[in-house]
Design brief:
0% strand, single chain, binds fe (ii) ion, elongated, 149 residues
């Protein structure tokens, strides 16, 4: 059984967590620094969410045993994206911007933990090696297409 997909997702989680840590620490930093970190966050998190939503969660949704976990993960992405969009439209120098970063960090930390505890476990249990390989291929090609657009 290959776990390449889960290794990749884990690495992406670490990267996003590190950017969110830096962003939270930089809330009193310069606007340029915050802007750059926020752009890094969007660049990494948006395709990650999208790839999981398009390929991993639908596969898990089809299995009775993992359906509920997949549905919850969809909703956690939805909630995190709402805050991410609000950050986009809130002026970066406002106190509310920093408060929203802090809320987003808590949401994403919680989501990644649940995902690694439940979704990864579901994938190991209920998806076949072929399914995992297909998801990995689709995930990577979607990401590279998004990178070019
Ligand atoms: Fe996720």
């Amino acid at each position: 059984m290959t776990y390449e997909l889960l290794d990749l997702l884990h690495q992406e989680h670490l990267k996003v967590k590190s950017t969110l840590d830096q962003l939270k620490m930089a809330t009193h930093g310069s606007p340029q620094q915050k802007e750059e970190l926020f752009n890094n966050l969007k660049r990494d998190l948006t395709p990650h969410f999208r790839g999981e939503e398009q390929f991993l969660y639908p596969a898990l949704q089809q299995k009775v045993e993992s359906r509920q976990d997949a549905l919850e993960s969809f909703e956690e992405h939805h909630a995190a994206k709402l805050v991410l969009n609000e950050l986009d439209t809130t002026p970066i120098g406002e106190e509310r911007w920093a408060a929203k970063v802090s809320v987003l960090k808590d949401m994403v930390d919680h989501h990644f933990k649940e995902e690694e505890d439940k979704i990864f476990e579901d994938a190991r249990k209920y998806l076949t090696e072929d399914q995992m390989r297909d998801i990995m291929q689709n995930y990577q090609s979607e990401k590279s297409q998004m990178g070019r657009s």
